[in-house]
Amino acid sequence: MEQKPSSGYQKMVEQFIRPFRGDYCVSSLGPKTFPLDGHLATRTDFILINKRNLQLHCSVYCPMPNPLHQKLADPRRSTVIGLHCNGGSRLE
C-alpha cells in the first residue's frame, strides 16, 4: 500500500524546494536610467538560455559616462553580481 505525503511535507516542498515564482513586469524594476550616488546609471535587461534550454532573465547595471568629464571610464572598475535565492526575483 502506497502512502501519500503528508500535507506538512507538501507545504515544505512548496516553500523550500519549488517555491512559488512571483509574476512581475520588467517595468516593475524601475526606470532604465536612474541617479545613483551622484551619477547616472543605466539598466540593461536580457535573457540567457542555459544548457537545459531554460531562460535566465538578467539585468546589468552600469554607470553612464558623464559628458561633462572627458575622462574615460576606469576599465578596472569593480563588477558586482547579485543572485537571488530560488524564492526570490530581480525585484529584491
Question: Can you walk through the features of this model?
Answer:
This protein has 92 residues and is α+β, with helices and mostly antiparallel strands. The chain is built from 1 helix and 3 strands, in the order αβββ. Strands 1-2-3 form a 3-stranded antiparallel β-sheet, with no helix packed on it.
Main beta sheet: strand number and arrangement? 3 strands, antiparallel
Helix count?
1
Count of domain modules: 1
Overall geometric form: elongated
Helix-residue proportion: 10-25%
The SSE order reads HEEE
Which quaternary structure do these chains form? single chain
Please give the alpha-carbon distance between the first and last residues: 45 Å
The count of β-strands is 3
State the gist of this model.
The chain is of the alpha+beta class and 92 residues long. It is built from 1 helix and 3 strands, in the order αβββ. The longest helix is centred in the first third of the chain and has 11 residues, at 7-17.
List keywords for this structure.
single chain, 92 residues, alpha+beta, three-stranded antiparallel sheet, 1 helix, 26% strand
Describe the SSE topology:
Blueprint: H1 7-17, E1 33-36, E2 39-49, E3 55-63
Antiparallel strand pairs: 1-2, 2-3
